[in-house]
Design goal:
This protein is α/β, with parallel strands linked by helices. It is built from 16 helices and 8 strands. The chain has 3 domains: 172 residues, P-loop containing nucleotide triphosphate hydrolases (Rossmann fold), CATH 3.40.50.300; 83 residues, Helicase, Ruva Protein, domain 3, CATH 1.10.8.60; 82 residues, Winged helix-like DNA-binding domain superfamily/Winged helix DNA-binding domain (Arc Repressor Mutant, subunit A, Orthogonal Bundle), CATH 1.10.10. The strands form 2 sheets. The chain has a 5-stranded parallel β-sheet with strand order 2-3-4-1-5, with helices on both faces. It has a 3-stranded antiparallel β-sheet with strand order 6-8-7. The chain is globular. The chain starts with 31 loop residues before the first helix and ends with a helix. Bound molecules: adenosine-5'-triphosphate and magnesium ion.
Length: 375
């Protein structure tokens, strides 16, 4: 985009779209190893063979979706031997819906009506693959949703074994999981695992320096020069690290820019960032809680209801209450709390001066958490 010298309005934004949730950055820094590993897994597919199956694991906001989407875009540009199909399992959470996406991609037509039988759909997909002599790689993004709905085993079984019924069909799978309590390798049946045999690509959380660099680059693209000082960028980075999700940082940049604009300031100031954080933080809480399972939401609400100002609630008290009200076992309870910790919803710490008592402290206002968890 050419630089504009004459601005009809006083905007800080050179390109507001770069702060959008679905924006795919031109440059994906710090994900070289993961992208290379993924590419290596898919390589046989480009040569007409079957790609290797992959699980991408990592906490929210670690670039899993973006890495796969960028790689898929590259594959699209190479030729037609390997056809990438991206599926968001939060939206398409049944085997019919997933195969409808594959059908749609291969045929270029709208997905078949929901009255169609699954067998008919499967036949149609197999025929298309045979006609086009292509291999399909399906990305099941947020595949844990399939697991919650008990669809994963069946789906993987069919995806990975179509060639046994329909000769010449080849499908490989990339499953993305951000729920660190879920280990797909453990969850699938042996009959699935024997054909799945996935390699795991791990996406570690970004360090503060990496977040700094990513946000600096994003700001450079999105803002006019001078709109965001180094000091304000550092403040945004600090808040992002507190929240534990890069998305909050990107959201913060945009909201801070809008705040500054609204007050007719030529540059973002501390108050713009702090006001933006109030909102961005709760938007993040909403989004995070939305990804929890119903029982997990109930447990979090229970903990929020028990929390004492500052000190939080002890692990054993919380467990007693959870067992009494929801009849859950300790390992489920512990797994959930660990997940809340990883998602930065709570902190789990030993209470100073009280031996081995572990305390759960909410990272958000208890009232707000209860509200978001509903009921
Ligand atoms: N290395 C990076 N460089 C630039 N931007 C990045 C990078 N990694 C992630 N992002 C940005 O951060 C946001 C979150 O990334 P992404 O959606 O890929 O995360 P994710 O691992 O799929 O998270 P989730 O598990 O919550 O779906 C996106 O807006 C993306 O553009
Ligand atoms: Mg994602």
């Amino acid at each position: 985009m050419p630089t504009k010298y004459l601005r009809w309005d006083q905007t800080l934004f050179r390109d507001e779209d770069v702060f959008d949730i679905d924006y795919i950055p031109g440059q994906l820094n710090f994900r070289d190893t993961q992208t290379r590993d993924l590419a290596f897994q898919l390589m046989p597919g480009l040569r007409g063979g079957r790609p290797l199956n992959t699980i991408c694991r990592g906490l929210p906001g670690t670039g899993k979706t973006t890495s796969v989407r960028k790689l898929f875009a590259e594959i699209e540009g190479i030729g037609r031997a390997l056809v990438p199909v991206y599926v968001n399992c939060q939206v398409d959470a049944t085997k019919f819906a997933v195969f409808a996406r594959i059908y749609q991609k291969l045929s270029g037509q709208t997905p078949p009506a929901s009255g169609t039988s699954f067998a008919t759909l499967l036949d149609a997909v197999a025929r298309l693959m045979q006609e086009r002599q292509c291999t399909v790689v399906v990305c099941l993004d947020d595949a844990n949703y399939l697991l919650y709905r008990n669809e994963l085993n069946d789906l993987l079984y069919i995806l990975l074994r179509t060639h046994e019924i329909h000769e010449g069909t080849r499908i490989a799978v990339i499953a993305i999981v951000s729920d660190m309590t879920v280990d797909i390798g453990q969850e699938v049946d042996p009959r699935v695992l024997s054909v799945f045999q996935p390699t795991t690509v791990y996406f570690p959380p970004y360090t503060a320096e990496e977040v700094h660099e990513i946000l600096r680059e994003r700001a450079l693209q999105g803002f006019y020069p001078g709109a965001l000082s180094g000091e304000m960028l550092s403040l945004v980075v600090d808040r992002t690290m507190e929240s534990g999700d890069l998305r909050v940082g990107i959201d913060l940049l945009k909201r801070a820019g809008v705040n500054a604009e609204r007050s007719a300031r030529p540059a973002i100031e501390r108050q713009d960032v702090e006001a933006a954080y109030e909102v961005a933080q709760y938007a993040h809480l909403d989004n995070t809680v939305r990804t929890l399972k119903k029982e997990e939401r109930r447990l979090l609400r229970l903990i929020a209801g028990m929390e004492q100002a500052d000190t939080g609630v002890s692990m054993s008290e919380a467990y007693d209450a959870a067992r009494a009200s929801a009849r859950i076992g300790y390992s489920t309870f512990y797994k959930s709390v660990k997940k809340f910790d990883e998602m930065r919803l709570v902190d789990v710490n030993f209470l100073h001066g009280r031996g081995r008592t572990r305390m759960i402290t909410l990272r958000y206002e208890a009232e707000r958490v209860r509200e978001v968890c509903g009921g």
